[in-house]
Amino acid sequence: MIQIQNVTKSYNGEKVLKGIDLTFSDKEFVSIMGASGSGKSTLLSIIGGFLRPDDGNVLWEGQNPFDFTDDALAGKRRSYMGFVFQSFKLISTLTAKDNIMLPVTLSKKINNETLEYFDFLTTELEIKPFLNKYPGQLSGGQCQRVAIARALCYKPSVVILDEPTGALDSVMEVKVMELLKRVNKEQKTTIIQVTHSEKVSCYGDRIIRLKDGLIVK
After folding, report:
1. Which residues pair with 16 in a beta bridge?
2. Is the confidence at residue 107, as pLDDT, over 80?
3. What is the pLDDT of residue 75?
4. Torsion of the alpha carbons at 150, 152, 156 and 157, rounded to the nearest 10
5. Which site in 47, 92, 159, 178 is 20 to 30 Å from 190, CA atoms measured?
6. Coil, helix or strand for 153?
7. pLDDT at 79
8. How far apart are CA 1 and CA 59, in angstroms?
9. From the CB of residue 162, how many other CB atoms can be counted at a distance below 10 Å?
10. Phi-psi region of 210 (alpha: psi -120 to 50; beta: other; left: phi over 0)
11. What pTM does this model have?
12. Nearest-angstrom CA–CA distance, 37 and 39
């Protein structure tokens, strides 16, 4: 369970989040929607422990990630959470395969089950043909699918995605969303996604709408 309690965040004196209260239950698939500037990406960064709120609390299974040391936070995030950034944040000096396997390698979880799951993901996401290429040699859509595979490969409890289909065509968008729904249902993975797409948002069990830093109905 992830809890967001009365969280606020400002930039240069302008309040971007204005007292957000949310609970994400285990095994839930949640879509967050809102216009540009509504605070969606800021909220995701706070949920993921990348950005400290000005006020309020963030709790991962009852623990505040901002109470951890930097090393402890990185270790906890790596074991607990997968994150797909809007800009992908692939490591340019690693191949697509090595980018996907990096969290597993760091966590020392490479075994037959992991390798089988890697094979499943790369097949489903249709990225096998370019596993030995570097991010600079890939299209935006290919990089996005590599980033999704990286987030899923070590089977975290929570997966957070910022515009997971923004660089994909309509056919691949459906394949990615069906995969995420399958992971949510079969592995009981909590999924939290930000999206501008009403179609993509409907894959969630719940839709949260943000406007001007507030949750609206």
Report:
1. none
2. no
3. 86
4. 140
5. 92
6. helix
7. 84
8. 8
9. 22
10. beta
11. 0.92
12. 5
Dihedral angle of Cα 26, 30, 36, 38, to the nearest 10 degrees: -60
Longest dimension (CA), the chain: 51
Which CATH number fits the domain that encloses residue 155?
3.40.50.300
Q: Domain count for the chain, please give it.
A: 1
Task: Quickly list DSSP for 40-96.
Answer: HHHHHHHHTTSS--SEEEEEETTB-GGGS-HHHHHHHHHHHEEEE-TT----TTS-H
d(CA 144, CA 176): 10
Domain extent for 84: 2-216
**Cα separation of 23 and 26, whole Å?**
10
Tokens 């043909």 locate to: 129
160, two tokens: 């957070």
Q: What does the pLDDT look like over 130-159, one tens digit per residue?
A: 999 999 999 999 999 999 999 999 899 999
DSSP annotation string for 173-207? HHHHHHHHHHHHHHH--EEEEE-S-HHHHTTSSEE
- Block residue for tokens 């894959």: 203
Does residue 6 carry a pLDDT above 90?
yes
**What is the predicted pLDDT for the residue at 217?**
76
CA distance 150 to 71: 20
**DSSP code, position 163:** S
Q: Is the pLDDT of residue 216 over 90?
A: yes
